[in-house]
Amino acid sequence: MDFRKRFVAKKKSFRLTDHDPDDTAGFDDEAVAGEQARENTQKLEKLQSVLYAEHKRAILIVLQGMDAAGKDGTIKHVMSGVNPQGCQVTAFKQPSHEELDHDFLWRIHKAMPPRGDIGIFNRSHYEDVLVVRVHNLAPKEVWSDRFRQIREFEDMLYRNQVVILKFFLNISKAEQEKRFQARVGDPDRNWKSSDADFTERKFWSEYQDAYQDAIQKTSRAHAPWYVIPSNHKWFRNMAISAIIVDAMKELNLRYPVLPEAKKPTGKPA
Ligand code: ATP
Ligand code: MG
């Protein structure tokens, strides 16, 4: 199955409501999906090692979603096989005073993965057209101009050999409630809950509108958004790992070939 084709957000016609968070693309066997996801992580491990050796391109994976959508779980699962040396995760929280004194992309650009690496953003520059919009943290003329700025920024990255893959982890409001309740009742996980999570839930439909707009305005061939049905964690993991593997395969990554003169002879120089 070509998960990229199935879940990519097509720019013009994109409607979030057309995407069912419960969709499993015909898969119904969790064990089979789990096996596929494991195979994908093994492939990813190999691809990453060539990406690192080739040292020409970087992969940027952006993860966005409502609280409890599974951003942390995705990172843990999908990246389980990759060498930590070539991978970095950045979580974007509320901006600091210093960050707020710069343009909104300043902290983002600083966190870009270098050539050869995979960078994962747990939240991202998209917060500046999501939470900022929903809570009026900036006037409309400020946040609405950011769609263009984001497109231009991502164009620049693309022209500098950064491969961008953006994932929206799509859960339903009912599934979020279920996960919140499960967290609260679990002593090992209730540290993850905060009253703020429950407050944000009140803005569910405002967030859906903001996501709809952001995805529609910024999904392009070289910086696509994938809307991943995420009510089922096993499906989410399989789909995301498959998409990353397919995108990396397409790069035709190659180990560097040393010119004859530079090949080591095995003797001291
Ligand atoms: P978890 O709750 O799983 O630890 P999280 O990403 O939700 O992870 P929190 O510390 O709970 O982490 O929340 C970070 C908060 O920072 C989110 O509410 C997010 O919307 C907010 N945030 C991120 N970027 C910005 C931004 N540019 N402007 C304002 N708020 C932001
Ligand atoms: Mg949180």
Order of helices and strands: HHEHEHHEHHEHHHEH
Helix content: 40-55%
- Unreliable spans are none
Report the average pLDDT across residues.
Answer: 96
- CATH superfamily descriptor: P-loop containing nucleotide triphosphate hydrolases
Q: Please, how many domains? A: 1
The major beta sheet can be summarized as: 5 strands, parallel
User: What percent of residues are in strands?
Assistant: 5-15%
Structural class: alpha/beta
CATH architecture: 3-Layer(aba) Sandwich
- The overall strand count is 5
Gross geometry: globular
Q: Identify the CATH class.
A: Alpha Beta
User: What does the radius of gyration come to?
Assistant: 20 Å
Write the CATH fold name.
Rossmann fold
Measured between the Cα atoms of the first and last residue, the distance is 52 Å
| Tally of helical segments | 11
- Widest sheet, order of strands: 2-3-1-4-5
Ligand identities: adenosine-5'-triphosphate, magnesium ion
Concise account of the structure shown:
Helices cover about 45% and strands about 10% of the residues. It is of the alpha/beta class. The protein has a five-stranded parallel β-sheet with strand order 2-3-1-4-5, with helices on both faces.
